[in-house]
Amino acid sequence: MYFTPHGLEQATRREVADHRARRVVPGHVADVCCGIGGDFLALARTGCTVDAFDTDPLTAAVARANADALGLGDKVTVRTADAATIDPSGYDALFADPARRTSRGRTFDPMSYSPPWPTVLDLVARAKTACLKVAPGIPYEYIPDGAEAEWVSYKGEVKEVALWINDGRAGEGNGLTENDGEGRIHRRATLLPGGQTLTPTGAQATTGPVARYVYEPDGAAIRAHLVAEVADLVQGHLPDPMIAYITSDAAVDTPWASRYEVHTTLPFSLKRLRATLREREIGNVVIKKRGSAIDITRLHNDLRLSGDKSAVIILTRIMDKPSVLICTPSRPA
Length: 333
Fold this sequence. Notes:
Blueprint: H1 7-23, E1 28-31, H2 38-45, E2 49-54, H3 57-69, E3 76-80, E4 93-96, E5 101-102, E6 105-106, H4 117-125, E7 130-134, E8 148-154, E9 157-165, E10 178-179, E11 184-192, E12 196-198, E13 213-217, H5 219-223, H6 227-233, E14 246-248, E15 257-267, H7 270-279, E16 282-289, H8 296-303, E17 309-318, E18 321-329
Parallel strand pairs: 1-2, 1-4, 2-3, 4-7, 8-11, 16-17
Antiparallel strand pairs: 5-6, 7-9, 8-9, 10-11, 11-12, 13-14, 13-15, 15-18, 17-18
Helix pairs in contact: 1-2
């Protein structure tokens, strides 16, 4: 019996893990935070042999059972051990997915990971090559110099960032780097299941008025600081230099952004927005926001909608002024 999340979540995790594993050159890999084995199973499927470790004996037993159940027991050895006690220097590659939950719930602070970030970096320093699987919101200052940070989105939802360190292909096709104030890193965004990738091109986003369409970039491109590259793809510019919405008169189909046709742009006013929606008989709305502190649930209730038409409402800032765009999804060009 294979112990893992079921249905769509299972399929999603496997596709993301398989994508990451395909980049690891087959060899002897140490998985020092293996959990129940989803990542080492992906590595084994690509031809790697894996020594997997977890601090919890029960978790390690489940991981071992999963490897055996899927016929990969000959490629995987599972042991109970603390990651800090592992010597990665004898392996071809190190893989680490430090736990991001504490007794108080999910943590976004790498110093609170288990093992904590300094321990992870010590392991990396002794490894030939390494891949670290971390939360998409990791602050740039925690990313080691020279690493490639690959933000991965699956069907529009950002799932993780993989940090590739001393990897022969890190930064491949990506000669530009992001200076984060501490060092330089390579950036990449990847879309699954299609496998499209985006890297810095040197594009510089300009600002200007709201045009016929507004584009919402995929979260992986936003996290990787590649909004200017998406703007270049759709021949667009930013309504506000600090907000990751793009506007353009061109209808460009791209997997890197969702496109909406703009019908009205207003300074934000509840009274005026409610009157405009009522006048247009809009009774069903999807509310999106970026750069706005407005509570979406409360706004939806306050609008007191009625009518049989639909719209997308985008709450944002335009040149630092609270604004609202009333839109509809744009059909493929």
